[in-house]
Amino acid sequence: MSSTQRQKQFDLNRRGASGQAHSPASDSGNNNNSGGSKNVVSPRQRKRQTSMERLQVQQPNVSRRAAGSNWMAAAANAPGAASGSENQSTEETSPALTKSARTRIRKKAQRNRYLAMDCEMVGVGHNGNDDMLARVSIVNRVGEVLLDKHVKPRQEVTDYRTSVSGIRPHDIANGEDFEVVQDEVVKLLHGRILVGHALRNDLAVLNIRHPFELIRDTSRYKPLCKLVSNGHTPSLKRLTMVVLGQEIQTGEHNSVEDARAAMGIYNRIAADWEKYLERKQHQQQHF
């Protein structure tokens, strides 16, 4: 084969490897120039042509592990990748979190894992002997208020108990519907450890339940009751004075203040409290 024929054969193989289709005219021209001989593609050439075609349609690997430090560039050049303006807007709306931002998010989650709740009630029914929810407050572990709402009365109020509850007619007249507040409380407490004083009364007036193992009730923690009131149920006011050295409930009660006091008591003895619960659970598993 002459050098001219080898050059034409090389060009033909290169065009075939690049996936370009040949028109009948070009093929006939090549046949005429080669002296009328028919070009036959060998199996080896066909295999190489197929391999080249596969290489051209192969999708780029945009995985971070494979691309290394250039993974973002590989992802940007991948088929279906967003345009430059779209990428820019995406980066602006969801930037990579810095270490300090991740730390803040983690600390916030830890603060909100423990919530303290307190409710104020008014009296309904005969002589106001029955309780009805008038206000509910929830704070996190550092005392930040996550919820504090008054609730519209669902029955006629016969005793506002203002000297204790601090509730007046206009407070609950402008409050929110009970079902709305109840739903907010349920969502906020879901999966969280609930701290409070005499929580059974608060949960009853809200008409909700909370898992027993997720409750930390300062009125029912036996070691604390023995220490403060010789085993009797102590008041939140007495506990706060003994444990925290603070005076609360000097006049009308405030549910935010009471919730913070209960959380402060728990924080002061949390380590001993949790160890006590672990020992108690261990004993129950062996009996």
From TrEMBL:
Alphabetized UniProt keyword annotations: Exonuclease, Hydrolase, Nuclease, Nucleus
Taken from the record, one Pfam family name reads RNase_T
Q: Where is this region: Disordered?
A: 1-103
Q: Which GO terms describe its biological process?
A: rRNA processing
Keyword check for Hydrolase: yes
Tell me which CDD domains the record gives. Answer: REX4_like
Q: Where is the composition biased (Low complexity)?
A: 26-42, 66-87
State the compartments where it is located. Answer: Nucleus
User: What are the Polar residues biased-composition ranges?
Assistant: 52-62, 88-97
Q: What is the similarity comment for this entry?
A: Belongs to the REXO4 family.
Q: Which PANTHER family match?
A: RNA EXONUCLEASE 4, RNA EXONUCLEASE REXO1 / RECO3 FAMILY MEMBER-RELATED
Q: What is this protein called?
A: RNA exonuclease 4
Organism, per UniProt?
Drosophila kikkawai (Fruit fly)
The gene name on file is LOC108083160
